[in-house]
Request: fold
Amino acid sequence: MHVTINDGDCLHYSTPIQVCKNVTAKFAIMFITIQYNVTQSLDERAEQVNLYQYGPKDIATVFFYLLIAVILHALIQEYILDKMNRRLHLSKTKHSKFNESGQLAAFYLLSFIWGCSILTAEEFATNPTFLWEGYPHTHMVFQVKFFYICQIAYWLHALPELYFQKVRKEDIPRQLYYICLYVFHITGAYILNLHRLGLVLLVPHYLVELLFHASRLFYFSDENKQKGFTLWALLFVIARLLTLTLSVLTFGFGLPRAENQGFSLAKGNFNVLTIRMTCLAAICLTQAWMMWKFINFQLKKWREHSQSQASKKKAFSPKSKPHKKDLARGSANGVVKSDDKTSPRARKAKAS
Reply:
């Protein structure tokens, strides 16, 4: 039996299997491809440009790339990290941290290179006024939207990986904190049409995190390789100051002076005082929490280093030698006195 479908003036005959395939294909496209394509011409003579917006269908796309991230995570773990662990013979504690740093270092490296290429192409970093001019930035190029889809998918995939990787109970709260912070901030920048600011802040942050986890990998291979942590500590403070500076400029000076003021879900405009202050407070509190963790980490390392140095000094210090006065008391006229304070002649007389 055939099904007749009217397409304009023509009649097409399709079998039920073909109809099912067409429905399945349309359903699969929603998961695989980037949705909400908008064609726009910047000038009258210029060629049309394909831009993108966000919408509810992005949830399906995020879910698909979440599954891709799980597969890539397993491949990196099996073919790279597990082989390195067998060679290093690490303890259980170091084994867990080594796997965490290996996975995150690969992700930070890819995201940093990808983010730098977008910043170079879109010129977001050359002019700070691009962060707020023309807000709301409801349209994105393909690379920007795909970058955010992959970022959200990766950090959401890290939640089930806590179970798949059999992470220790002591490490789960610490990892949950930074996973939830990443999801909250990246999703917030994506929904509030602040993807320009989010991208500019993510790139230097990922560089600092990449340096930290790379230094930790080298430290696990050889404990004498600790120079990377010094450079990381310097860049960490600079990245925090840069994040606070750009956030205050955007939410405190740039957006309040923008032309489009007000709140409108239809237009994607969230430029009101309440939202601006909430975003700025969230960023400042996050940076303060990171600095507090950083200071505690540095104090812990300093205490461990001072304790190790003190133990080394005690181990290599020479044994205490007898004082000259003690030697003088123990001997008189070149004859060493015995403990019972009797001379050798007196002991011979007593023995006879």
Remarks:
- The first strand starts at residue 3 and ends at 7.
- Residues 1-12, 331-341, 348-352 have pLDDT under 50 and may be disordered.
